[in-house]
Structure formats: C-alpha cells, structure tokens
Amino acid sequence: MSLPSPQPPAVGVPPSPEWYTHQYVTTQAQTNPTPRPTLRTWLLSGLVVAMSVVLGALFALFYGYSFGLVWTAISLLAALLPLTLVVPFFLWLDRFEAEPWRYLVTAFLYGALGSTALALVANSLGGAFLMSVTSAQSADVLTAVLIAPFTEETFKGLFLLIMWWFMRHEFNGLTDGIVYAGIVAAGFAFTENIQYFAGAAIEHGLGGFATTFVVRGIISPFLHPMFTTLTGIGVGLAAVSASRATKAVAPVLGWCGAVLCHGLWNLSASAGGGAGLLLGLACGFVAFVAFVIFLVWARRREGRIIGEYLMPYAATGWLSSDEVGMLSTMKARRRARSWAKHHGGATGTASMRSFQDCASELALLRRRMHRHTFDAETLQRERVLLDSMTARRREFAGAVSR
C-alpha cells in the first residue's frame, strides 16, 4: 500500500522538506548560490571597465594639467588613506548578507568617476550662470551652498535608484541602501579630495595641503557618506515597502535630507569663516556619533529580521530553533564558524559560511514574499537556497563526524 502524499502548504507558508521531496527530485546545489564577495577579474563588465578607463584618463589629464603631476600624485595617495577607514566600515555593516563585489566595485567607480564628472559639469554651468548675475565671491558661495549639494547628491543618488529598479532581487532594504550609498559617496569623496588637496597645495603650499588633509581626510572622512546615506535610507525603505506612497515619497525625503545637510555643511565652511567651520565640525561630530549609533542599530536590526523570517522554516522542519538563534547574531555566527573550523578544517568553515550566507538571503527573500506578491521565479530561488542549505549542513556535519 502506498503512503499518502504530504499535504500541500498553505499559501504563503514555507513547504515542508517532505513536500519538496514528494514534489521534486531534489537537486542540491553543489556550489554556493550566494557566494561571499571575492575580487576577481570578471567582476566588472567590459562597458564599466571601458567607461572607467576613459573617465579616469580624462580626470588624470585634467588634474595633471591643473595641478602638475607631482602634487596630483601626492594628493591621490593622500586621498586613498581615508578609504582605509570608510570602506571597511560599510563592508562591516554588510556582513549579514554581503553584496557581490561586482556591484560594490561598480558603485565605487561610479562614485569616483561617473558622479564626479556629471557634478563637475553641472557645478561649472551653475557657477558660470551665477557669475553672470552676481559678483565672483557671491557666485562661489552660492555655488557651494545651493548648486553643489543639489547636483552632487542627485548624481550620487542616481546609482541607488538604478540599483533598486534593475537589481531588485539584490536590493534587500535599509542596509543595502546604506551600504551602496556609502560606497558611492566614498568614491566621490576620493576624487574630490584629490582636487581639494592639490588645489590647496598649489594655492597655499605645504601648509595648505596639510590643513586640508587634516580637515577632509582625518576629521571629516565620513561627511559625503553621511549625506548620501540619507538618500540610501529613503531608497532602502521604499524597496521593502508595499505602500506606493512610501515608494514614491521615501526616496525624495531622503534625498532632500542629503541636500539640506550637504548645503548646511558647505555654508558653514564657505560663508562662516574659521568660526563657521569650527561650528560645522562640532555639529558634524554630533551627527557622526548619531550616524554610528544608527548604523549599529541597523546592523542588529537586520539580524533580528533574519531570525524573524527564518522562524517559519524552523516550524516546517528545514531549520532547528538553535540554528535560527545562531543565524540571528554575528557573534553566534562567528562561534559557529570557529566550531566548524575546529572540527572540519577549511572544508567545514567554507560549508558553514555558505550555510549562513544562504540562510541570510533566504530570510530576506521570505521577507519580500511576505510583503509582496511572488512568482514562480521567487519560489524556484527559495528551493535552490533550501537545497543548498541542506547540502552545506550535510557537509559540515559530515566533517565533524569523521
């Protein structure tokens, strides 16, 4: 006598392993469907590489002609130093569900080359118009306070809108919006710093270079990322919201906040003299502390979201409650990887890391399924992730038992 078929799952409920086994011939993934970022030569498309080379060459010629090769080279090296702090910070935020390197590198290159080129043209045109209707000094201040924040935050934020629109399966909400915004802004600040450092050196000598480097490279390296993060928060909220009003309004409000904060900073630096700059730095420090607190909260929030949306898979037998608890915090994840390394060496560590990566993406996929309608492609992606998690668990459990 044949056994009865497992009951199909209710709408919106994850199917049980028995249902999958009954319905499909399981094809458990032999490779990790959510590979952790590794830098390889194929990460960037030929178009991005070609555009980056062309724009990079144009910037090199422009800076070399304007400031000379020596100061341009020195300023480039100096502009690299803040990146060693800013970029790792945003990668730290991105650990639960790490974004592919091809998108992160593209974001940085767009910020460093694309958005700066567009902003340079727009700022120059706006400055020329203001010069024609007011004095040179007033035009400089108005350009810095009114035009530059508008154009720069618009062109930086454009990348976030493109990612949200064309890569919706990779854009998973608030954290992704913050990470991409920070990386784009880091690229923008890198190119802009070359210009500011070299310009200060030409105009004021070594002392001007040193002062500008301290202010922009040491005291305020997070300014551009802080501004653009506001746009990233708006786009991130829109990406996970089922409300059309939120989708329309949140990015605009975030962008307005970025432009306003950017403009206030430029006002303190341009029109307030030394006292204005000190006031701006003091306010910037308070804002930075709040910014760090918010990002720490956002990272922990993502862990809670992952735990919440993995619980249905524990209820249907795909995961244990202990595994859900482990997957909900970075501290527990690190302990699990250490355990896997101790018992299974490099193979156990790789399998555990892949298990964790798949679980993160599965939770965020379930979140999208919960808030939006889902199609056959989404269900197939869920199946691939579940199959891979099962295979990876067998690997690290098998390594332990040997």
Helix share of residues?
over 70%
Mean pLDDT over the residues: 83
Q: Class by helix and strand content?
A: mainly alpha
How does the overall form come out from the CA principal axes?
A: elongated
Largest sheet data: none
Rounded to the nearest angstrom, the distance between the terminal CA atoms is: 38 Å
Query: How large is the radius of gyration?
Result: 25 Å
Q: Segments where pLDDT lies below 50 for 5+ residues?
A: 1-8, 24-29, 36-44
Number of helices: 12
Question: What share of the residues does DSSP label as strand, in percent?
Answer: under 5%
Give the domain tally: 2
How many DSSP-defined strands?
A: 0
H-E order: HHHHHHHHHHHH
Protein name: RsiW-degrading membrane proteinase PrsW (M82 family)
InterPro entries: PrsW
Keywords: Membrane, Transmembrane, Transmembrane helix
Pfam family, one: PrsW-protease
Keywords:
402 residues, RsiW-degrading membrane proteinase PrsW (M82 family), mainly alpha, elongated
Molecular structure report:
By secondary structure, the protein is mainly α. It has two domains: 45-271, no CATH class; 306-401. It has helices spanning 17-23, 46-67, 69-93, 101-133, 136-166, 174-219, 223-240, 244-270, 273-315, 321-327, 330-371, 376-401. Helix 3 packs antiparallel against helix 6 (174-219) and helix 4 (101-133) runs antiparallel to helix 5 (136-166). The chain is elongated, with a radius of gyration of 25 Å. GO terms for molecular function: peptidase activity. Pfam families: PrsW-protease. It comes from Janibacter cremeus. Keywords: Membrane, Transmembrane, Transmembrane helix.
